[in-house]
Structure formats: C-alpha cells, structure tokens
Amino acid sequence: MNRPIFLMAAQPTFGGGEKHVADLGVRLAARGWSPELISAGEGELESFFRARSIPVHRIDRPRSPQAFPRALLTLIRLCRARRPAVLHGHSEYPNLMVRLAAPVVRTPVVLTWNGLHFMNAGGALRRGLYRFSESRLAALADRHIVVSRDDRDALAQSGLVDPERIRLIPNGVEFAASCPSTAPSQRLITVARFHPQKDYRTLLVALRTLREQGHDVTLDAYGFGPQEREIRGWIEEFRLGESVRLLQADHAELLASYGTYGLFVLSTRWEGLPYSVLEAVATGLPVVATRTGGVDELVIPGETGELVAPEDPGELARMLERVLTDRQRYVDGLVRRYGEFADAYSLESMVTRVEDVYREVMAESA
C-alpha cells in the first residue's frame, strides 16, 4: 500500500465531516495505508494530522470564483507528483474538486456525503444549481458513500447517481464495553455549528417555554460558526442569559463532559447521521432531536429518546419535558440497545467498510 490515499476536507476547523476525515486518517494509518490530508486552510485539522506524522498538503479554499481554477490546478499538480491510489472527497467543495481533477489524473474517486446538502441547503435557486451541477458530475465518481439509510434512498431516487455506485457506511464512534451512566440532571447539551441549518432559534424558543412553565432547565451549546452573533441576540431577546451558555471545547474535553448532562438535544433542519447524536448515545445520554436524515436510526421514540418535526418549538418543548420527567425510562432503553448500537455504529466497522470501497475502486482501475 505504497501509493497514498488523499483525504480532502471542506474546512480547516472541526465539524462532523472533518471529524470523519480525522478518524479515518488515523485508523487507515494504523492499518498500513498511507493517508494524506488535503487541507482547506490552516487550522485544527492540519494540526491534528501533523501531530500524528500524517502528511498534510494545503490547498486554501478559493474565496472567489476567479481563484477556483488555480486551486484545481494545484490539486492536479499534487496528484501528478504524489500519484494517489484514491481521491476521497468529503462534503460538497472537496467532492467537486476531486471529480474535476479525476479525468485529468486518472485516479479513482470516492465521495462521502455527510448529509445531502445539495438537496437541502439554501433556497430553491441554490438547490437547483446544485442539482444541475450534480447531474453533470455524478458519473465522475466511482463510489458515493452515504451515512444514513434516508440519504441512500434519497440519492438513489434522485436519478443523479447509478444506485450500484452507492454504498451505505454509517458514521462510527468508539463505544464503551457497557452503557455509561449519566447524571439525572436538568442540564441540556447540544453540539452543533452556529449555522442556520442547526435552527438554534427553535431550540431557544422551546427552552424559554420550559422555563416559563417552571422547569429549571439550562443549556450548554458547543459550537462555532457565522450565526453566533445572531444567536446571542436571541438569547438576550428571550431573557435566557442566565440559562444558556455558548461554549467551545476540544473534543476530548467535550466527550468527558457528556456524563454531567441530563439529555442531548438537536433542533437541526437536515442531517446525514450526526456525530453529535452518535456520541450522545455512546455516552449514555437520552436524545431529543428532529426527525431528519439518519437521526431516527438512533433515537427510538419512547425508548432511547424522542423525535420531533423540524421547526416546531412547541413540540420540541413537550418532548423535552417528557424525557426530563421520565428520564430513567430512556436511560434503561439505552442500556438495552447499547450493544446493538455499538455493533452497528463502531468506528472500526466504519473504517473496515471504507477500506472495502477503496479495494473495489482500485481493482476496477487496475
């Protein structure tokens, strides 16, 4: 396995897609492959790979359409110099770049979609443009990896991709030997970018409703992103300054803190299979989340948590109250399901299945 595997990331900071790249890179290196990161800019992801002696190549994400051809030419030159065995893109921008480079450098292409953002993001015009570009580019990828059954079905039914090229490989995390115990607390946690996709306003309205009803609930929101200022404005508007904290922490600190919370909440508008929900389940936390993407694979109503419709703060408040009031029922449900989830969503299983995809496309191109 001398030829490298190029892993191209969308952002220099850690989000769900970047965690996927980081976990995959480390495990591939441990299994004898030669992963190399194609970084979108200076940041945590570069530091993570360099600290583990995994090669990093930076191609700064273009800030204007005029800069895009230069970035693409840089990728092509790098491929010609390093001769990767596979180009593996993660999310929209990398998935575009590796497909445009592939016909020139004649390298197999694998794409991972952590949520089908090109079907969900933005308004109708933006979605239409995404769909148009995908109709022209989809065939340039040898395999499309999706992380949830919902995304697999949506992509297959879209007519954009040959269903034979789609592989369902759920995201994976590390599970304990048995379900960890968590605190019977009124403290809520969410882990989500400060971005319109994550719909913080709905969550804050639901929290205000609970507090007006006399529930002494608090929320710690871990994230970063362009909507932070607006979210702080909503916190002030809803008089939640004493109840909501916007925080940042490194991943290890964040995982260690999960056990101090009563439940995990996510009010997102769309998802693939969110790492935040996976990690909450792996640490024994009941979950209240919107019914979108692969969330319902982990959140089983009445057993491991509750599901709500997107953008419905009233229903979200009711389900949060239900779980907080009868929390032990959901903890017991997680204990019963823990071994099943650990088998289906383990990190090692995810990496093994990605390796299988690499071997498929490498054999086809030989």
Radius of gyration: 21 Å
Question: Which structural class do the helices and strands define?
Answer: alpha/beta
Shape: globular
Share of helix, binned: 40-55%
- CA distance, first residue to last residue: 14 Å
Order of helices and strands: EHEHEHEHEHHEHEEHEHEHEHEEHHH
Count of strand segments: 13
Q: Could you name the ranges where pLDDT drops below 50 across 5 or more consecutive residues?
A: none
Strand order of the largest sheet: 3-2-1-4-5-6-7
Characteristic key phrases:
alpha/beta; seven-stranded parallel beta sheet; 14 helices; 15% strand
Report what the structure shows.
The mean pLDDT is 92. It is built from 14 helices and 13 strands. The protein has a seven-stranded parallel sheet with strand order 3-2-1-4-5-6-7, with helices on both faces. Helix 3 (68-82) crosses helix 4 and helix 8 (200-212) crosses helix 12. The radius of gyration is 21 Å and the shape is globular. It has helices at residues 16-30, 44-51, 68-82, 92-105, 117-120, 124-137, 149-157, 200-212, 228-237, 251-257, 275-282, 313-325, 327-344, 347-365; strands at residues 5-8, 35-39, 56-58, 86-90, 109-113, 143-146, 166-168, 187-191, 218-222, 244-247, 263-266, 287-290, 305-308.
Topology of this structure?
Layout: E1 5-8, H1 16-30, E2 35-39, H2 44-51, E3 56-58, H3 68-82, E4 86-90, H4 92-105, E5 109-113, H5 117-120, H6 124-137, E6 143-146, H7 149-157, E7 166-168, E8 187-191, H8 200-212, E9 218-222, H9 228-237, E10 244-247, H10 251-257, E11 263-266, H11 275-282, E12 287-290, E13 305-308, H12 313-325, H13 327-344, H14 347-365
